């Protein structure tokens, strides 16, 4: 049986990473090539969608794999840890 896996960007994680790095919305926007913070703000709040290129840039900024920016990994990791604990 084939199951389709839907990946969703973990917006809270991206916001948390940005804040931990002491980057303002304006600074993050500039790092990603935006002229103002508005365009980036819409992505971080879910009002817009991250492109694959932008996600690649975000992962580079925080030195992560692109997959680490998605919920699916978080859920899979939790499931694996739960199985190991049992």
UniProtKB/TrEMBL annotation:
Keywords: DNA-binding. SUPFAM superfamilies: lambda repressor-like DNA-binding domains (SSF47413). The keyword Transmembrane does not apply. GO terms for molecular function: DNA binding. Pfam families: HTH_3 (PF01381). Residues 14-69 form the HTH cro/C1-type domain. The keyword Repeat does not apply. Signal peptide: none annotated. Gene3D superfamilies: lambda repressor-like DNA-binding domains (1.10.260.40). It comes from the Bacteria. InterPro entries: Cro/C1-type_HTH, Lambda_DNA-bd_dom_sf. SMART domains: HTH_XRE. PANTHER family: DNA-BIDING PHAGE PROTEIN, TRACRIPTIONAL REGULATORY PROTEIN-RELATED-RELATED. This is HTH cro/C1-type domain-containing protein. It comes from Lentibacillus populi. The lineage of its organism: Bacteria, Bacillati, Bacillota, Bacilli, Bacillales.
């Amino acid at each position: 049986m084939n199951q389709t896996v839907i990946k969703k960007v973990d917006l809270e994680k991206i916001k948390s990473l940005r804040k931990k790095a002491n980057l303002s919305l304006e600074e993050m926007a500039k790092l990603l090539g935006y002229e103002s913070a508005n365009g980036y703000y819409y992505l971080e709040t879910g009002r817009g969608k991250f492109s694959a290129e932008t996600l690649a840039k975000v992962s580079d900024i925080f030195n992560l794999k692109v997959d680490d920016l998605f919920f699916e990994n978080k859920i899979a990791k939790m499931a694996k840890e739960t199985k190991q604990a049992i």
